[in-house]
Amino acid sequence: MSSLELLVDCINHGSIKIGEMTFDIWDNLAELLERIPQPEMLEPFRSIFRRLMLGMWKLCQYDKDTQLDVIVNEDHNNDFVRFRTVSVYELLHDVMWIYGELETFQEMFQILLRSDNTWTESESALYIMHIVADELRESQSELIGQLVRTLLSLQDNCHPLVKRSAIKVLHHLSDWINSHQETIDPVIRFMITSLRNDRIKSAAASGIQSICFSCQKKIHISHFEGLFQVLQSAEELGLSNESVIVILKALGCIISHQPADKYESLMSNVVALQVKPLHEVTPYCVVSGSIYATLCSNLYFGPVDNSAAILYLVSIIYDKLVCRSVE
Questions:
Q1: How far apart are alpha carbons 8 and 13 in whole angstroms?
Q2: 66 DSSP assignment
Q3: 95 within 8 A of 127, measured Cβ to Cβ
Q4: pLDDT value of position 262
Q5: pLDDT attached to residue 162
Q6: Helices 184-194 and 160-172 meet at what angle, rounded to 10?
Q7: Which residue, among 237, 260, 262, has the nearest Cα to 247 in the 3D structure?
Q8: 235: Cβ–Cβ under 8 A, 6 or more apart, which residues?
């Protein structure tokens, strides 16, 4: 054990380069421990992996002097961003079962609740939580509920990267949110509000899509209005094409589970909004098949119940608004 203690000391040294040199050893050790048939034999190792997890939490903390644009864009050419999003993510995903995903989640939550945290400490705790969130079970519902309420109560003036990591945690808790219908509305409203923040709007768009996909049979039609308003204001909000497509997919999930009497009008509104700019540019000519194919691919919402009907309606509206040949 003394050799493992020394390896943990390398993690706690504070140097990313020194810490990362030990990652292969931890991976190999986890593979060996996985072969142990008696769970009680793992007990002596749990304290070691707890210290490893806390060391990762410290190493994942952003330097307050780092340029915010580099952090926000998660530029993988930046060594620290790559370290967090690749090296740390893969290591913790592979080895934290030894200490326990629930125990890791609980410990990071306690750090998050501390009143004397810096924003870098809180953000790093949320980052670790989002790595293990997928492994939590329904039996941990009370803990998850407390966390969700804490995240939704974040103030508008909290650091944007804390809120971005909070959104990522909610993203990974989408199945739990689906099982607790009362949380769907506040979570979606939280993410729609976050779309107005330039530094976290991409994460918010992805989070909305994840929640809409997981909860598509339970989402209320009122959420369509909120997302449709976002789509109408996409240029004003400065949303990227990728974010707009994500919002379109989220709308598709909502529409596909609406009654037939609402289905066509909702879909018409969405498609017309996307087709209108094309129609203004090319009012007197037939738009090429490649543009039409792109339109359909952007509006194909995946394996939803009415996907065939969606595409059929797209073609009807497209023909009506765009495909007008010169007579």
A1: 9
A2: S
A3: no
A4: 75
A5: 92
A6: 140
A7: 237
A8: none
The pLDDT profile of the chain, 327 residues, written as one tens digit per residue, is 678 888 888 888 778 888 899 999 999 999 999 888 888 888 889 999 999 999 999 999 988 766 565 556 665 567 888 899 899 999 999 999 999 989 999 999 999 999 889 999 999 999 999 999 888 877 788 899 999 999 999 988 888 889 999 999 999 998 899 889 899 989 998 998 888 888 888 888 889 888 888 887 777 777 888 888 888 888 888 887 778 878 888 887 787 777 777 777 777 777 777 666 655 655 544 444 444 444 444 444 443 344 434 444 444 444 444 444 334
CA distance 307 to 312: 9
Give me the count of residues in the chain.
327
Closest CA to 106 of 59, 142, 159, 138: 142
Classify 64 as helix, strand or coil: coil
- Closest by CA to 313, choosing from 269, 276, 258, is 269
d(CA 96, CA 232): 43
Residue 194 vs residues 16, 166, 244: alpha-carbon distances, Å = 31, 11, 15
Output the CA–CA distances (angstroms, integers) from residue 240 to 77, 166, 209, 233, 245, in the order listed: 21, 21, 15, 12, 9
Q: How far apart are CA 276 and CA 200, in angstroms?
A: 28
Contact criterion met (CB below 8 Å) for 177 and 216: no
Task: Give a three-class secondary structure readout of 136-181.
Answer: CCHHHHHHHHHHHHHHHCCCCCCCHHHHHHHHHHHHHCHHHHHHCH
- Cα–Cα distance between 172 and 258 in angstroms, integer? 26
184-194 and 222-232 helices, crossing angle to 10°: 10
Element of type H or E holding 261: helix 260-281
Q: What is the CA angle 255-260-264, rounded to 5?
A: 60
**Pair of tokens at residue 38:** 């008696």
